[in-house]
Protein 1
Amino acid sequence: MQISEALKKATKILYQKIESPRKESEKILLSTLKKDLTFLILNEDFKLTQEEIDIFFKKVARRASGEPLEYITNQVSFYSKIFFIDYGALIPRPETEILVDFAFQEILKLSPKNQIQILEIGIGSGALSISLAEKLENANLDFKIIGIDISQNALKIAKKNIENFNYSSKIQILQSDLFQNLHSQFFDLIISNPPYISENLKGKLQKELEFEPEIALFSGNDGAELFRRLLKEFFNRPEKILICEMGFDQKKIIQDEVCKLANTDYQLIFYQDLANLDRGFILKKKINS
Ligand SMILES: C[S@@+](CC[C@H](N)C(=O)[O-])C[C@H]1O[C@@H](n2cnc3c(N)ncnc32)[C@H](O)[C@@H]1O
């Protein structure tokens, strides 16, 4: 079977099941052949081996059954870079790129004299920490990131990405339930994109989410269980800045929780995504508190 024929057949299988059947068929074929787009364009009549055909159509069937393209190709694009991704970690979302930008801006405001210490809670694939690391490096800043996650599977994926991007000396990973295994370390900034979907929505969301780890998605009845724990622990720690992504409908929950817990002066700023939905917050304890 030639490439052109295989793509036609795959597009037909995926037609009306996904938004871009031809484009995704091409991506699946490229990941099967481990080639780039130029190869496809120049070799439409290239004859596939039986093994390549079998692997390709198995992957197409996975996509037709609702599995995310990223898990099939083991690739995800985030902040203009391609990361390795697999079942153990959440597929990083484009909206999380905003968190990278806000974290970077806050770090610039610190006008640091010593090495900047950053903590990411729930590092997942590592895409967020690696993207932030690249920005800090480009700005000639000295930094160290510790990325923790409760999931060993996620940490394995983060490790692979950190090694692929040569950040092993700058980003350290650690298995921990929130701050549990961090002991007395101090961080200039804490960032997190925690799980924030309500458990009540399990099985009621788009099919693709069923393939992602539940621990990366769901958090109690209102989706804010981990936020409550995180905020409580944050207010008992010496760190002054926490930046988090959150659900578009969680502003009030976060406001109430911060008011309840804060025994110190603080500033709470919410940020929006491109669709103008509340998407995250920056919580700062006042300098002298
Ligand atoms: C929404 S994912 C974010 C992953 C990645 N940072 C990103 O933005 O793509 C949340 C991550 O938090 C981790 N997590 C969940 N509960 C945790 C806990 N109690 N302590 C530490 N990490 C936790 C999950 O394993 C998951 O990797």
Protein 2
Amino acid sequence: MRRWVYGQAFWCQVAATLVWTVVSCLAGQAHGSDVRHLVLEGDVTFEDLGHYVRLPFDVPQGTTSIAVSYTYRWDAAGGAEARGLLDPVVDIGIYDPEKFRGWSGSDKSSFVVAATKEATTDSYVPGRILPGRWHVELGVASIRRDMVIHYSVDIELRDDPLGPPFVPPPPQDVVISRQARWYVGDLHCHSTHSDGQYPMEEVFDYARAIGLDFIALTDHNSFSHMLYLGEMQADYPDLLLLRGVELTTYRGHANVFDLYRPVDYHGTEKGYDINAVMEGIHEDGGFISANHPAHPFARVGEGYIGLGWAYPETRWDLMDFFEVVNGPSVVLGGIPNVLNSMAILLWEGLLSAGFKITAIGGSDDHKAGHGSQQTDPLYSPIGMPATLVYAEELSPSGILEGLKAGHAYVVAEGPDGPRIDFTARSGVRTAMVGDTIRGRDIEFIVEIIGGAGRTLTFWKDGIPWVGHYAVAVDRDPFTYTCRLRPLGPGRLRLELHNGPSLSALTNPIYFAPEPPFWGPDVGAASTVPEEARTASRRTGELVVFLPAFGLIAGLKRRGCKRTSGARWVGRRRVLPLFRSGATGAGSGGIGRQRGPISQVILLPFSEGASKSTKPPSTTGRS
Ligand SMILES: [Zn+2]
Ligand SMILES: [Zn+2]
């Protein structure tokens, strides 16, 4: 369900040392129209760090635009020049009487909010200038303990005749292609609607030029850029413009996709509930991804720059994606980007804890592809990394559902980098990255195109898989197969390296043994995807819990009959006391079966299936 209202329920009232004064309020004639001029001044101190100061002002009927500029200076023990690790930073945004009208962080020292799009500064939402009480909001991002920041906000209320007020267009359903295949794109970049240096058009032009299929423009706390995606989409018939915003709090950043409203970013305010925010995003059809989560600079000394994810209360089942590759894979001419290595470790920890979160990448480009590591060591152009998604169609829901299913891998080398096809087989079952496969003996197949000269490493349950570490990719195309007999549920993923730098990383294929080999009520059932359960339901598959492998074959061949009632164990139906119908050696080298077989587990779990008259079968490869 999409909501049209994009108002903020949140109203922050900071009891700070805030003093605001109207220094001047005058009416004058400027080009034949009224201009009302206000100056709001005050101080913030260390007590206000991470808080938001709201400065109310009244807007009269007939106002067509509001021009805001602000400055701040500071006193500190030892003088204003005595700087710590970070300069003080004060962010700014604005709210009308009903809703959020934009946020530009510390990127813009002046801006205009107007009735029309043409007169409104990027980052701000054009539309009718409602009369009544507005608020400028200042965010105290960084201040030293010994400092006092003096701010001054200059507001001009104008009534120049502008065109008809901008009306936000309704969200549109966009489908670029109905073809199910791999699509390549970038899920993180910025434009002039936040602190990017180039307008949206240049971002999309670059994305199209390098052959991306989709791009998410994720400006910081911005809503304004989303208003224009609909009409711009027509200019980019082959490039899906995904709705995105970087939820930018002083405790961490997260990209939110396919949500058509602002997101509450006051993460450091009392009462903020990140889990409620995430639930609200999901309720409105959005998806959320922790950005550069391992960045250490959640708070540096006495300043927030809020990069790393610092919400220990996060319910990780609400996190859809995890940005394990942010920006470049190598920095300073060849040093691996350790922030990404740390993000991968964090992600592995979450996977080990049972949260199936999809790894994605994002360039976090702020320069529409025109930057350089010569001047910015952490620069990475749009498409580096690229995220590849197997999607049913090239549409927002197609891409995001593909990502949610884990059908994705990250190519740090960019859209022209290696392509990896990583699949698994067990009997008639097959799986791709993100899927779960069951089997006694699972074959994994890797096919790499364009990867010659790289090395391939298998990561099993978070650590390199012995025997499959640093495999030389010495041909193009390159194929590698290996087998695994799982003793319990687990996961296997790939990394491709080019010298010291990460070239690509896949999401895992999750695997689980056939139930016989680890008991009737093991937690692996929770990793079985719904479609697999449905398939079991359809086939009435019978899986047998027995002390030896070969007995299954024997049962299949000779048949068996149920000799007592069924009972439920966990989510599986357990039929105890099966007895084999005959004795003798089976094809699996089974000796004579004496006495009752301990138990038989019937998949699926529905009543209907339990009445199946189909002969029991196992679909695992023998
Ligand atoms: Zn960020
Ligand atoms: Zn960003």
Protein 3
Amino acid sequence: MGQQAKPALTTCDEETKPLILFEDVSKSFAGARVAVQNIDLKVAPREFVTLVGPSGCGKSTLLNMVAGIFAPTSGRVLYNGTPVGALNRKVGYMTQADHLLPWRTVSGNIAVPLEIAGLPRRQIKARIDELLALVGLDQFAASYPSQLSGGMRKRVALARLIAGDPDTLLMDEPFGALDAQLRLLLQIELRGLCRRLGKTVLFVTHDIDEAVALADRCAVFTGRPGTIAEYFMIDLPVERNLKSLRFDSKYQKECARLWRRLTPEIARVGTEDEPALLPFAQEATQ
Ligand SMILES: Nc1ncnc2c1ncn2[C@@H]1O[C@H](COP(=O)(O)OP(=O)(O)O)[C@@H](O)[C@H]1O
Ligand SMILES: [Mg+2]
């Protein structure tokens, strides 16, 4: 691949010490093709960055490298100025599946990271009460996951995620399987919570509307091997009302801008990397 101009880093300026820094990072897996290539990404403390792009372009791979699950093949991933080595304990990770333990109550599930950290019992109890209040589940401390709605389960997972007070939340399509209304509610709660607690977030999504609504900045990936094609500064206020956002012309403009940027990826369908469209769909995209 030719050397292309790298997109400008806009929110993490020269004076700001980045919390997460990818320096020309590439990652290949044994026997597989290159997953990501020449990634430069600088995330400021408390910044909310969404990652959007076609499936298989390496978004999860980037999160895994911040978490220290695997190292880059070339380049460096720094966290707070230090190369990420073994498991990065300053981050919390959340995926689409909530991985709640069915035999533990809500409190018991939230306690897991606190128990692993070896906190004294009394401290665990106090922290759980605080977290239950934060996610509005005080009344459900003794309930089991099977007794909860999908949204409540997500809130438990969120409380467990922030229990150990990580600086950074790595979120890999966490709301992917939810219906639109519930997704909106959780987006409101997540952005509010992160602002309030001063969390830094890397949030992967397929959903363009979500990528705009949540983000201070959005990184747009190209297809495999994944590179960041462009950074979009999201031109919306930091304190925003997600509930009325869809009627906001600025928001609609931002979504349209992102759509236009991602649409060329649809043209890649039918190439070596992606299965061909059905014939009628091919006609419709011409
Ligand atoms: N642990 C792994 N072992 C081998 N190949 C992997 C592994 N993780 C990801 N890959 C490959 O890296 C590429 C990018 O994957 P991934 O980061 O999951 O993409 P995305 O999250 O954007 O869908 C894919 O081709 C995938 O098969
Ligand atoms: Mg993924």
Protein 4
Amino acid sequence: MTTDTLEPTTAHHSSMDKEWLSSIIQPIEHFEEARRYRATHTRLEAMRLAAEKFRTDMLNKPQVKFYRSMELIRVPYPTKYAFLNCNIIPMPFIHILNRLFVVQVDTSEGLKTILLSPSDAEANAETPYFKRITNKAGPAKDLLKKFIAPQSNTVNGCLEQLGLLPEDIDFISYDHLHTQDLRQWLGDGNKPGLFPNARLLVMKDEWQSAKALLPPQIDWYCPNGLAGVPEEKVIQLDSDVMIGDGLALISTPGHTAGNHSFVAHTPEGLKVTSENGVGPDCYAPEKSRIPGLKKYALQTGMEVILNGNTLEGGMDQYISMVVEKTIAGTHPVYRDFPNMANSSELTSYWGFPGYKPTAAYGDLHFGALTKK
Ligand SMILES: [Zn+2]
């Protein structure tokens, strides 16, 4: 990844804007040295130590003011990718649950509201991988969609439920841009977006690769999902940052090269959100009751099970997942599992029987929302 500067890329922003942004977005330096080790075993242990130190430091600092995760939609996902190399049940799909995370943090520029993973489910359905599955049903595809991808809520519905207005949203971010269409939120250059004040926080590597996809990536990105999104609404990050008090974005390449994780300091410890793994089970496979995971982990010594549909960087993904679970620490109730709040999480579904999570924490809610 790019390490020439820790400052966000703000070439498209005015100097006043840059100053404003740099007082809210602060670089984190904990991982910079460890990432430079080229030998993977050395990098793994250096990153693990850096993650422990980062965890201690973050726990000694203020918490977010508000944190809420809300169900959006369940979608089918190939088992062979979800539990890379270890599935044994002949059930080709699992169900993963996509959530929206609404977070408010104090910053030196006042309270800021951030949406993590605001998925536009209808637009995302254009992603080639999903489209191929639903198109197979021909005229029955709307029925099939309802069966395989039941929607619990929309982003707009969640905001209404919370009493938030579109103009209240200051930042949006995704752990990576697979399946995402940002035009409804940020505009496409012709039509304004729904969130007039929101900026996208994204790793530079993710933004640039999503705008010039290679053939192995195309299946998982929404065609034109970024087309026309004004560059001044995009903050390209070079590395790890804090967003005000209690929310960190940590570069965790692997699932995609520009993948990042959200770390939120809550009353229940550090909640880590990512799609490198599809739920807490994948971060403690030796304790999992999901068929195949424990056996595979014990046979191989794997500390984590990769979500391997694209494997843009397999070894990096392994190291990133170890970092994620080290930062998260142990869940306060499910003591065998780390405190992960994955953005695409394995969930039980009668339509795809056979796989259910050993640990699932449900929708989370901490603190009181402040309305502007
Ligand atoms: Zn993905």
